[in-house]
Amino acid sequence: MKQSKYLKILNLSKITLEEYLNWGEAEIPKMPIEKRTSTEESMKIKQSEKVLSPKEKLEALKRTIDSCKECALGKSRLNAVVGVGSLTADLMFVGEGPGFDEDHKGEPFVGKAGQLLTKIIEAMGYTRETVYIANIVKCHPMIDPANPEKRSNDRPPAPLEMETCRHYLDKQIEIIKPKIIVTLGASSTRGLLYSEEPISKIRGVVKEYKGVKLIPTYHPAALLRSPNLKKFVWDDMKRVTHYLDTGEI
Question: What's the CATH superfamily of 68-246?
Answer without folding.
Answer: Uracil-DNA glycosylase-like domain (3.40.470.10)
